[in-house]
């Protein structure tokens, strides 16, 4: 089998030459490569928009990509079979902690945007969207940035770069390096499933930037725009069978292929003062009012996923396609959708979106593992399920659609079988501090204290857990 290299006989949009780095990405994972990198590849036919990408928690993705010149195979898996293309738009791949490289990238006046896929938990925020100052990683980064700001001053700095644990603290350090180098305006584009991801990201950036001094904070506020986005493309974790499929389709050995569905959506609200790829030519939509589309996606697609990953998994199902084939599971999903749809305006056409979602969920060729979706469920429930429940309860209704997801999560935490969670320490503390027989109640209160104001809802959840 032939290695996947830039000197191989391969066809790729925009060619195989390394492109000049004009975009930085934080969170080098499968979704980014199926979504933002794919959109850029589709429209960058002249090879002008290279991406320098940084991993999340593990350097493995960067190591794999670097071993094959940052090329990878994107397998689009539809009902009629697979299609594959080699993507060449990533020019450099780095480990998350390579701050020297990140600062160097952001100093470049040619770099005009930063995209983010760091997961909901990666922003380090609390239930209200502010920096969670009780989070150990956030606390460490706040202290490190304050010390760096005090030692570096406002001018050119020769201070040693600090060690930082969170993605947005690293981003702020890079933005400060851009300020010091006179790099000019830049756009930040969060692409995670968070309500109001633009304003939330803006707030986190400004909280971190304040620690670097007044001049730095003011420059970042004035020169860094933050877009808001709604993103959508189901991208399951690749399996060994997928590696074999990619090789069969292209004839090249790929250690890091990405498998995704044909559907893709990217809706964007915001300004790009230093320019951007023409993503709209690949179907991206630019709007002045993102919120209705964002809520449609968070509550219907992501909400259903979180329900399945915490409730249907308890019935023994492993994938979305398997779970949605169960009539009782489908009824739970439809009940959640019925409640969420009450709060979506007509222009987003929730009925058509729901119908399309069912077709996507039923695709047996997309093996979207519930165990993967279940990661970091505390943050996901707060964003995807709790808002619907609170709206229903405030309107005097029962919010039964939210019960399976919340009760399923409580049950899995209580029984010690929950998926990994970045906030597991906080969860474990709530369990340890619960009064006798009150673990379930303690977990519900941790999820959202306001829910405790509705005793009948609380009892429904506890009975189901």
Write structural notes for this entry.
The chain has 465 residues and is of the alpha/beta class. The chain is 45% helix and 13% strand. The chain is built from 20 helices and 14 strands. Strand 4 (72-78) and strand 5 form a beta hairpin. Helix 18 packs across helix 19. The longest helix has 20 residues, at 291-310. The protein starts with a strand and ends with a helix. The model has no long low-confidence stretch (mean pLDDT 95).
Concise synopsis of the structure shown:
The protein is of the alpha/beta class and 465 residues long. It is 45% helix and 13% strand. The protein contains 20 helices and 14 strands.
Q: What level of helicity do the residues show?
A: 40-55%
Helix-strand makeup class:
alpha/beta
Strand content: 5-15%
End-to-end Cα distance: 51 Å
Rg over CA atoms: 22 Å
Put simply, the count of helices is 20
Count of DSSP strands:
14
- Largest sheet composition: 6 strands, parallel
Map the helices and strands.
Blueprint: E1 2-3, E2 21-26, H1 30-34, H2 36-43, E3 50-54, H3 60-66, E4 72-78, E5 81-87, E6 90-94, H4 99-107, E7 113-116, H5 136-152, H6 167-181, E8 186-190, H7 197-209, H8 214-223, E9 224-226, E10 228-232, H9 240-250, E11 252-253, E12 258-260, E13 265-269, E14 285-286, H10 291-310, H11 320-324, H12 327-341, H13 350-361, H14 370-373, H15 377-384, H16 386-394, H17 403-414, H18 424-433, H19 439-447, H20 455-464
Parallel strand pairs: 1-11, 2-3, 2-7, 3-6, 4-12, 7-8, 8-9, 13-14
Antiparallel strand pairs: 4-5, 10-13
Properties at a glance:
alpha/beta, 14 strands, six-stranded parallel sheet, 45% helix, globular, single chain, 465 residues, three-stranded mixed sheet
């Amino acid at each position: 089998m032939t290695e996947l290299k830039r000197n191989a006989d391969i066809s790729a949009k925009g060619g195989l030459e390394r492109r000049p780095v004009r975009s930085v990405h934080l969170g080098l994972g499968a979704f980014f490569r199926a979504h933002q990198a794919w959109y850029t590849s589709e429209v960058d036919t002249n090879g002008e928009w290279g991406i320098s990408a940084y991993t999340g928690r593990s350097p493995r993705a960067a190591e794999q990509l670097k071993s094959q010149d940052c090329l990878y195979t994107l397998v689009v898996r539809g009902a009629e079979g697979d299609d594959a293309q080699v993507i060449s738009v990533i020019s450099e791949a780095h480990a998350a902690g390579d701050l020297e490289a990140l600062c160097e990238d952001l100093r470049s006046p040619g770099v005009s945007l930063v995209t983010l896929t760091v997961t909901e938990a990666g922003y380090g925020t609390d239930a209200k969207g502010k920096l969670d100052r009780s989070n150990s990683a956030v606390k460490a980064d706040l202290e490190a940035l304050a010390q760096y700001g005090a030692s570096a001053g406002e001018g050119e700095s020769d201070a040693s770069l600090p060690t930082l644990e969170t993605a947005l603290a690293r981003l702020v350090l890079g933005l400060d390096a851009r300020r010091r180098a006179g790099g000019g305006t830049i756009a930040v584009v969060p692409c995670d499933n968070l309500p109001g991801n633009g304003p939330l990201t803006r707030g986190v950036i400004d909280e971190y930037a304040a620690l670097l001094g007044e001049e730095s904070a003011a420059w970042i506020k004035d020169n860094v725009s933050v877009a808001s986005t709604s993103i959508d493309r189901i991208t399951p974790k690749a399996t060994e069978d997928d590696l074999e499929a990619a090789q069969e389709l292209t004839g090249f050995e790929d250690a890091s292929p990405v498998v995704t569905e044909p559907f893709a959506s990217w809706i964007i609200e915001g300004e790009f003062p230093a320019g951007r790829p023409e993503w709209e030519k690949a179907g991206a939509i630019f709007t002045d009012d993102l919120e209705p589309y964002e809520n449609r996606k968070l509550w219907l697609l992501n909400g259903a996923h979180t329900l399945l990953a915490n409730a249907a998994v308890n019935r023994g199902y492993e994938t979305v396609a398997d779970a949605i084939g169960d009539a009782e599971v489908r009824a739970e999903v439809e009940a959640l959708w019925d409640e969420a749809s009450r709060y979506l305006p007509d222009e987003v056409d929730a009925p058509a979106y729901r119908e399309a979602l069912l077709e996507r969920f039923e695709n047996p060729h997309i093996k979207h593992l519930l165990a993967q979706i279940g990661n970091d469920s505390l943050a996901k429930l707060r964003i995807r399920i709790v808002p619907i429940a609170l709206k229903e309860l405030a309107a005097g209704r029962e919010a039964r659609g939210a019960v399976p997801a919340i009760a399923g999560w409580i049950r899995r935490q209580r029984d010690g079988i929950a998926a990994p969670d970045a906030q597991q320490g906080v969860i474990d503390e709530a369990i340890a501090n619960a009064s006798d027989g009150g673990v379930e109640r303690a977990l519900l209160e941790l999820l959202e204290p306001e829910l405790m104001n509705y005793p009948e809802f609380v009892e429904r959840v506890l009975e189901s857990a």
